[in-house]
C-alpha cells in the first residue's frame, strides 16, 4: 500500500487500481498549473507529489518543476508538472511552460472571485494558444474554507461544462480531491499514443521542416 | 510497491525527489536566474522545437531584437553578467558572444517595456545639496583670500625700502616655513641646491624654487590691499627688482580670482553701455515727441502760444536724437562677437528695435505745417474773436439800452474802445508783446504787473532757446493771465475815468 514516503498518505482516489506486474505501457505527460497568485497551485502540487502541506507556502519564483508517477490501469503515467508562478510579472513566462503541455490545471480560490475570473482568462488563453487537444482541468482550491466561499460550486461547474473542462473543488490542506483531479486528467489523456509521444510531446514533429526555414532566414 | 499507483519505480529520483524552482527552462530545465535570460535562452536554444506559427512569431521577435540592438545599451553590463550567470546553457550553444549580445538586447527590450508603462516617478531637487557642497567651498576660498588680503595689507602698510629690513618685516608679518628639511621644490619636485635656492611665499610662507615663484607688482598689491599708492612714496624709489612681492602660485591664484570676480561684478561691457545710452536717448526724446504733437495741434487750432519756429526747432532736435540712436545701434552691431552666438542675435535685436522705434515714433511725426496756412488759421481765429467780442458788446449795449437811457452812447463809445484794445492784445501777443508795453507806458513803468510780464517774456525767450517747450507753454499761459489782468485794470481805470464824466454830464443835464 502507500508505503513510500513520496507517494504521500493522502486519500488516494478510488480510480487508482493496483496493477502490479502488468505495466506494459508507460507514458509521460507534461502538465502545467496556471492561476492567479496565492490560489494554491504550489500547495496543490506539493500535496500531490509529496503529500505535504505548508501553511505558509512561499511564493513561487519563475516556475517549479516536479514529477510524479502514477499507475493507472495498466499504464504508468509520469506527470512532469510545471508549477508556474502566479504573480503578474511572471505572466510572460507562462506561454513557455504551457507550450506543448498535454494537460493543464487552472486553479482558482473559491474565496476569491477575481481569481475565478483570472482562471477564465487562463482557460481562454489556453484554448487560443496551447496545443489544441490539451486537457484542461479547473480546480477550485481551498475547498476546506467552503463556508466562506464566494465562487459557487454550481457556477464554476456550469462554466467548466460549457468549456469542456474537468472540474473539481480541491483542498491542498486536507488533500481533498487533489489526487483525484490528477487521476481524472490522467484518465482523460490519450494513452495509446503516449509511448510514441514520449519525446514527441515536447518536440513536435516540425523538427525537420523548421530547420531549412531557419537556414533560409539566416 | 507496485500496488501503489504513486509508485516511483523509475529512475526519476532526482526529478521527483527534488523540487526544482526558479527560472527553469521548460525543456532543458536549467535554472536561468532571470526572466530575461530565460526567455532569451528559450527563444534561442529551443527555437527549432516550436511549430511554424511560433517560428513566425519568433522571426518578429528577432527582428525586434535586431532593431533594439542598435540602441545604446545602458544595461549592457548587467545584461552580460546575467547572461554569464546562466552560463551552462548559454555556452553549450557555442556562440556565447552572440548569445550575450542578444541577451542584452532582450534585457533592453524589457527595460523599454517598463519604461513605456512607467509613470513619472518621484522627483527630487538636488539644489540644496549642491548649495551645501558649494557654500563651504566658497567660504573656504573667501576666508583664505581674506586672510591673504589682511596679510598683504600688513605687509605693505609700512614696508621698509631697505632690503634687509624688508626681509625682517616680511618674516615678522608672515612666519616663513623652516626649509631645512625641505629637499625638493613642492611644486616642481626639483631638488634644492646652490644653484636652485629656496624661496618663500611672502603671504603663506611656503617654500618654492625661483622658477615656481610668482611675482605680484607692488602697485597691484597696493590696490588689492586697498592702500593708496601715494602713501607709499618711498616705494617708488625702490629698485626695479624689489618692486614686486614673491608669491606662490596658489596665493597668486587666489588673489587673481578675487580681482577677476571684483572686475566682473563692476565692469560693464561696451554693449551694455551703448545700449544704456540708447535707452536714455529714447527716454529723453519721449516728452519731446509728445510736445511736438501738442505744438502742431495747437498751431492747427490757431492758438498763438507756440510759433512755427518752435515746431521746426523741436523737429530738428528730434531728428538729431533719431540720428544718434541710429548711430549708437550701428555701433552696437559693430562690436565684435562670435558669429551665431546669442550675443549676436541680441545685438541684432537691439538694432532692429532701434530702427523700429525711430521709424514708428520719430519719422511718423506730422510734417511742419505751412506757415501761410497757420497765418490764415490765426487770422481767421482773430476775426472770429473780434466778431465774438463785437457781438458780445452789441448784446451788452442792447441790454443796456433796455436798461438805462442816457449813458448808452458814452458807454458804447467806451465799449468800442476797449474792444479795439482787446483785439490789439490778441494781435500783439504774436509779435511778442510790443504794443501793450507801449500802452502800459502810459500807466507807468513801475507797475509791478508790467514788470512781471517783462520778466516772463524774458523767461519765455530763454526757454525757447533751450527748447523747453513745456516751460514755454506754462509761461505763455501765465503771460496771458497777466495781460488779461492788465487789460482788466486798464478798462476799469478807463471806466472809472469815464464814469465821473457821465455823472457830471448827468448832473449837468439835470
From TrEMBL, chain A:
Q: Where is the composition biased (Polar residues)?
A: 13-23, 194-218
Residue numbers spanned by region Disordered: 1-23, 193-218
Which InterPro entries does this UniProt record tie to the protein? P-loop_NTPase, Small_GTP-bd, Small_GTPase
Q: Which reaction does it catalyse?
A: GTP + H2O = GDP + phosphate + H(+)
One Gene Ontology term from the biological process aspect of the record: clathrin-dependent endocytosis involved in vitellogenesis
Per UniProt, subcellular location reads as: Early endosome
Report the CDD domains cross-referenced here.
Rab5_related (cd01860)
Q: Which GO terms describe its cellular component?
A: early endosome; endocytic patch; multivesicular body membrane; presynaptic endosome; synaptic vesicle; terminal bouton
Q: Could you tell me the EC number(s) of this protein?
A: 3.6.5.2
Q: Which GO-annotated molecular functions does the record name?
A: enzyme regulator activity; G protein activity; GTP binding
Keywords in alphabetical order, please. Endosome, GTP-binding, Hydrolase, Lipoprotein, Nucleotide-binding, Prenylation, Protein transport, Transport
Return the PANTHER family for the record.
PTHR47978
**Family of the protein in this entry:** Belongs to the small GTPase superfamily. Rab family.
Protein name (Swiss-Prot/TrEMBL): small monomeric GTPase
Naturally occurring in which organism (per UniProt) = Drosophila persimilis
State the organism's lineage. Eukaryota, Metazoa, Ecdysozoa, Arthropoda, Hexapoda
TrEMBL record, chain B:
- According to the UniProt record, where is the region Disordered? 75-99, 488-510
Q: Where is the composition biased (Polar residues)?
A: 493-510
Domain of life according to the entry: Eukaryota
CDD domains with a match to the protein in the record:
FYVE_RBNS5
Q: Does the keyword Oxidoreductase apply?
A: no
Is tRNA processing a UniProt keyword of this protein? no
Extent of Low complexity compositional bias: 77-97
What's an example of a GO molecular-function annotation for this chain?
A: zinc ion binding
What residue stretches are annotated with the FYVE-type domain? Answer: 179-256
Q: Which UniProt keywords apply?
A: Metal-binding, Zinc, Zinc-finger
Report the transmembrane regions from the record: none
Name assigned to this protein: Rabenosyn-5
